[in-house]
Every structure is written in C-alpha cells, then in structure tokens.
Amino acid sequence: MKLSAASVVSLGLPAVISGGVIECAAAEKFPSRPIRFLVAFPPGGGADTLARVVGQELAERVGQQVVIDNRAGAGGNLAAEIAARAAPDGHTLLQATVGHAISTSLYQKLGFDLVRDFAPVSLLASTPFVLVATPSLAATSVNELKALAKAKQLNYASSGNGSPSHLAMEMFRSAAQLELQHIPYKGVAPATTDLLGGQVMMMFSTIAPALPLIRAGKLRPIGLASRTRSATAPDVPTISESGVPGFEASTWFGVLVPTGTPRPVVAALNSDLAAILKQPATRARLVTQGFDVIGSSPEEFAAHIRAEIPKWAEAIKRSGARID
Description:
By secondary structure, the protein is an alpha/beta fold.
C-alpha cells in the first residue's frame, strides 16, 4: 500500500496546494509502522474472527504488522473512544459495528460522535439476524407466527435491554403489528440456554451461532432479517418474503479511521480492503463463519451509517431503552 507520488497524483487530489502537499507526503510514507486494529469485542467471537482474517491479509499487502487490539467494554464503546482520540494518520483502524450506530441513541453520555469523529473507509461484511423459535412453538413461518400471536400471549428472549437482538425484535414487532412479551437476559448464552429449554419461545440471533442448532433440530428458523437469503443458509426464507415486506435487521462490520486522516490514505486502505474481500479464499472463509461479504466505497459506507442511526433510534424509542 505504500504510495508513490505517481499513484497519489492518479487519485486526482489537489497536490499543488499546501493541504494537498501535506496529504500526499503523509500518504507516501504510509504505513510507516504497525497498524492498530481496534475491536470492540473479546477474542474468539465472530467480530474478532473477521478482524483477524482481514488484518492478516492487510498485513501481507502493506508490509507492516496489523495488531488486533481487543477493547471490549462499555457496550463496545471503549474501542470507539480510543480510536476517536488516535492520531489521524491511518495507523489506527476501528472495526465499526451496528452496536456503535445503536449507541448513538442508546447512551445519554458518549465519548465519541460516530459521524463527526470518524472517516468511513469500507464496509466489510454483515451477518443477518435469524428469528429462531423453540421447536414446541406451533409456528413454522412468519404468517403462522402472526396468527398465533393473535390467539395467545407469546414471549421472546434478548441478550439484554437495548441490545441488537432486543431492538431487532422491536422493529419486527412493530412492522408485523404483534404484541410480544420481552424477557431480557444478561447475554446471548443464557438467553439461548433458556430458548433451548423451552423457557422462552423465540429470539433473534445472529446466524453463525444459530445455524448448528437449527441443523441439529434444536431450534426452528422462522425467517432471516435480511434483504436476500444468506449464502450461509440459503434454504431459510427471509422475513421480508414471508409476510413482512421490506423488513431488515442485521449486524454489520466496517472500518473507520479518525477524522482528518489524509484522503489518499483512506483511498489506499479502501483499495486494499476491496482487494482482500474479492479474494475467493477469503470470501469462502468468511462465509463459513456466517458472514455475508459486502465491501463498499467510503461514500457508500458513510451513507449506510447515516441511514442506520435513525433506524435504530426509532427502535430504541419504541423500546424505551436508555443507558446513562
């Protein structure tokens, strides 16, 4: 990724003015040291896996080490706060997630502004939520679930108040015009345990951990919360095609850098990430982990973030969730 003067000029940037000269000079030396990739989750999970796959490929392309820095805490906001304060030179990346878009409205006090403090580089991938139910529930489709909910009181689990799984269900409940009882848990694991035991009826889960349970017959898929069927589970219909047109709720991952990072550096990072995500072996590896590989331009990612913030804000408003 080290940029020559010719490659910088080819980007069409105004290198003849002083600001452009500074940007070009910064880009020509980039990267000059290891790159820090901040991840808002602990090692071993899906987000960490994605970061390590991409980080390894990026390191090979740029000739510098990419250090995965797991900074779980504060609902995923700690990593973002650290990244927002980092030098805007491209050597600090943040793995942004849907959780950061949610935090914008969920937290009254937040140590970063997702739009003001960061420059988008690229979307990486998404993993759709899947609505799963205990096999004893007398519904196998969205329409059957809607009919059942009119006849009896149904409940659902989430990984906690204001969590993505909670808010995804709030959006579904509103779109499908259902009355459902919310039972929050302290994390995905206890919620899944009680769902498997039949103590709760359904929940939204990301597809990777749910798929083995679906294949084993321990959970029943009702529908995917994505625009199109997932490459990971092509036989599971979408909620949109099954009775709630246009419904979509997924967790996504992308790369941000601090605002002020030189434009040629952002462009070079985007180019490298695009090349990584196009590699068949990399795509196949991520699909097996439950990801739908996306990729985007910086402008497309910026538009995605601007659309996501109000969407989740509305779900938060309906849920009444708020964190001081």
